[in-house]
Write a structure and sequence with these properties.
The complex is a heterodimer of chains A (about 190) and B (about 575). In chain A, about 40% of the residues lie in helices and about 20% in strands. Chain A contains 8 helices and 6 strands, in the order E-H-E-E-E-H-E-H-H-E-H-H-H-H. Chain A has a 6-stranded mixed sheet, sandwiched between helices. Helices cover about 35% and strands about 20% of the residues of chain B. Chain B has 20 helices and 21 strands. Chains A and B meet through helix 1, strand 2, helix 2, strand 5 and helix 3 of A and strand 1, strand 8, helix 10 and strand 19 of B. Strand 2 of chain A pairs antiparallel with strand 8 of chain B.
């Protein structure tokens, strides 16, 4: 139990959270940890709120993280970081992409997109790290690699071997987009 | 020993490969779809998508009869469709080993109900295996095939979403070729006329007694002694939650819950002070325990609906509080807008539902992405029961209340039509109905992730064939009026639908346009110009690429998301939306 890392990945269907979680799982396995991951796809993936649970450590039973026990929340969209925040433990970290994607009730003008989420995240969680992953991905030559930019930032907060992340990117990503994604990863890793 | 991290579905596919499966068949359904998608990577296995689960199982039965090790996969509700052959296949038994995968969905992440197919195993009188992680998912495929051949009976391997879509470490092995068992004609075994079936039923009952004996001695079921104050009987993913919440408790893990290992359960119950049963959905194990006259606590403290988790077990059995969540400042759930799934930007279904709403029609719906047409703002679906139900439902409404003629349309997707729409259509023709059937032909099985089907003319193995002629099939069923139209042209959609609901005979409209996610080439995106008066007509399309900024009273198009389908341009009365790059032309 004591060395377990609970990582919750939240985002919007289509943003590549499942792919990102697989890269982390490979990196964890390469670092000698037992990994369990639980994703949900199907109907929810069509632009819905998606969340993936990742648990890494010596002995892992349940693939699910319980409310109030995530060490890190990694969110590819800011509202989703806010939505899933109750999963974070005291003293946990939030890594969040500043991108906003309006859910249907907001598009329809029935609800408003909550204001000042990034500031409120910081207020609640001192260790909140936000970045504009979409911008950094564009600069690396692949707009779709925003998820991998975030992985770079995540990697700088974890003690996995850098080579393991390299391996994981290679194992999961198609060869033709690997280079742009490696650049994107580096951008996130170097982000301060 | 090579290790990999696999989902339960990937592990089942690997299990099929390692344990000599020769033939695999399925119809896509969450959370089972990736089993066949992964099996098809192995050259040694013939794998196919079938039109529906009944056919998939029948193909599997034929393959088993011919002596091959066989796997058939489906989601829980797919077993309803395959139930007819399943119930009798249990009588005939197998030649080559046969495993039926039932992927259940407690919590209904992507299903219309959460039926517990462990009851189906008992109902069909076939042995049931339940893995609790990916390693077991792989190993149990082998165990199921061995059991199947040893006892001459098909075996159900039941997963749930948390097994199918969770990843854990698996040790990989090599493929062991099993070869074909020779086929011998045995009509008294395989031809189920009543006289033969009576004998087979009796035999099956005898097999179940032997299987119970097997289950009691099998290492698929095991006692893990710990603190004797609390004993928990559990299976599947719940085993992991129990180990997480109560690592010190005694635990009886049932990898083979049916036939129920009575002796083992008695031994376990006798060794603990208080007995609990932890299982999702039905009190399947609990009832078996209580039939033995043992006292146990199960559904008194656990729900009959949805999923269970470790916190729940910790609280309700362990009597401990959950970890204290963060005290959050300025946090209220009311403020956070829901994010329901939505038809993608550019989805060809959107315009059709927009018009169905405008015409205020009763819409009997079906299963697919287009089921999302029931949600606001489109809000234009009145029913959705199961695959293929739209057609019969429309006919039934019209027969019950003739004044509804011309007000009811049935809506079904292409893959769903091939799955179970043909018989419904024939029924409409035969019974002189006047229903209008809309087939939303987006050229793929979209919701489960773009699998091929007869209409695409490509098999699971990507062999090219002749695409099924949808218009020809509909005509052959006896529908004389078949109209092909473009769902992205709203004027055409409205004209065609109005025209077809107005006629006295049954008719079919095929709206053909490929799923937006399969189209690589995007059109120029839409943009809003200064003519906009903020009437929000375009917002009523419910397109995720549209943003309605109520603060500044502006609508905007998110350029990256827009596919340029042009629906918003068509609904704007003020020429305020145009294709990017066409400004001022």
């Amino acid at each position: 139990m004591n060395n377990t890392i609970n990582l919750l990945l939240a985002g919007v269907g289509g943003q590549g959270t499942i792919l990102a979680s697989r890269i982390i799982a490979y990196a964890a396995q390469c670092s000698g940890l037992t990994v369990k991951l639980s994703e949900i796809h199907g109907m929810a993936q069509r632009g819905g709120s998606v969340v993936t649970h990742l648990r890494m450590g010596d002995t892992i039973h349940s693939p699910l993280i319980e409310v109030g026990s995530a060490d890190i929340i990694l969110a590819t969209e800011q509202l989703e970081a806010w939505r899933w925040l109750p999963y974070l433990r005291q003293g946990g970290k939030v890594i969040v992409n500043s991108q906003k994607i309006s859910p249907v009730p907001v598009i329809l003008g029935l609800k408003s997109y909550p204001l000042g989420i990034l500031e409120r995240l910081k207020e609640n969680v001192p260790e909140t790290f936000s970045l504009n992953a979409l911008q950094l991905a564009r600069e690396s030559g692949n707009e779709k690699a925003a998820n991998v930019v975030l992985l770079g930032l995540l990697a700088s907060h974890m003690n996995f071997d850098r080579g393991c992340w390299q391996e994981a990117l290679k194992a999961v990503l198609p060869a033709k987009i690997l280079e742009a994604n490696e650049k994107a990863f580096q951008r996130g890793y170097d982000f301060k | 020993m090579k290790k990999a991290i696999l989902t339960g579905n990937e592990a089942i596919a690997r299990g099929a490969y390692e344990h000599g499966v020769k033939v695999a068949a399925a119809y896509p359904g969450t959370p089972s779809t990736e089993i066949l998608e992964n099996i098809t990577k192995y050259e040694d296995i013939y794998a196919q998508w079938s039109c529906n689960e009944k056919v998939a199982l029948e193909v599997g039965i034929g393959s088993s009869l011919a002596g091959a090790r066989t796997l058939v996969a489906m989601k829980h509700v797919g077993v309803n469709v395959a139930a007819d052959p399943l119930m009798t296949f249990a009588y005939t038994g197998v030649n080559g080993g046969m495993v039926l995968i039932s992927a259940d969905d407690p919590g209904m992440h992507s299903s219309q109900n959460e039926q517990d197919n462990r009851l189906f195993a008992r109902f069909a009188k076939v042995p049931l295996l339940e893995p609790s992680d990916s390693q077991e998912a792989k190993d149990f495929v082998g165990a199921a095939l061995n059991l199947s051949e040893q006892f001459d009976v098909p075996v159900m391997l039941r997963t749930t979403t948390r097994i199918a879509h969770s990843m854990s470490e698996v040790t990989l092995g090599e493929r062991v070729e099993e070869g074909l068992k020779p086929y011998h004609k045995a009509s008294q075994k395989y031809v189920m006329i009543p006289a033969y079936a009576r004998v087979r039923h009796q035999l099956l009952e005898e097999k179940l007694v032997e299987l119970k004996q097997f289950s009691q001695e099998s290492n698929l079921n095991r006692i893990e002694w710990g603190d004797r104050e609390i004993g928990v009987i559990t299976s599947g993913i719940c085993y992991q939650y129990v180990k997480e919440a109560l690592p010190d408790a005694s635990c009886l893990k049932l990898g083979m819950p049916y036939p129920f290992p009575e002796k083992l359960v008695r031994e376990f119950a006798a060794g603990v002070k208080k007995l609990y049963v932890v299982e999702e959905l039905e009190p399947f194990l609990e009832e078996e325990v209580k039939v033995l006259g043992l006292e146990a606590v199960g559904k008194e403290i656990f729900p009959l609906t949805g999923e269970i988790n470790a916190s729940m077990i910790l609280e309700r059995i362990g009597g401990k509080e959950k970890p204290a969540p963060l005290t959050l400042k300025d946090y209220s759930l009311e403020e956070i807008p829901m994010r329901p799934p939505v038809m993608c930007a550019g989805c060809p279904h959107r315009g059709v539902f927009y018009i169905l709403k405008k015409l205020d029609l009763i819409v009997t719906g079906d299963i697919g992405c287009y089921t999302l047409g029931c949600l606001p703002p489109l809000d234009s679906m009145d029913s959705c029961i199961c695959m293929g139900a739209s057609i019969g439902t429309a006919l039934g409404m019209e027969k019950a209340d003739p004044t509804l003629k011309g007000r009811v349309v049935a809506v079904i997707g292409d893959s769903t039509f091939f799955h179970s729409g043909l018989t419904g259509t024939l029924d409409v023709v035969y019974n002189l109905g006047s229903s209008t059937l809309i087939i939303l032909d987006n050229r793929t099985t979209a919701m489960t992730g773009h699998q091929d089907h007869p209409g695409t003319g490509r098999t699971l193995k990507k062999e090219p064939g002749e695409p099924a002629d949808l218009e020809g099939i509909v005509k052959a069923l006896g529908i004389d009026r078949v109209v092909l139209a473009d769902p992205l042209n709203l004027e055409e959609v409205e004209r065609v639908v109005s025209q077809e609901i107005g006629v006295q005979e049954s008719s079919v409209i095929i709206f053909r346009s490929p799923c937006a996610l399969t189209v690589k080439e995007k059109d120029a995106p839409a943009q809003v110009n200064e003519e906009c008066v903020y009437c929000t007509n375009c917002v009523d399309l419910g397109c995720p690429a549209m943003v309605n900024d109520t603060q500044s009273e502006e609508v905007r198009v998110t350029q990256e998301q827009c596919t340029g389908c042009g629906l918003c341009i068509q609904v704007c009365d003020f020429d305020a939306i145009e294709k990017a790059g066409e400004a001022g032309e």
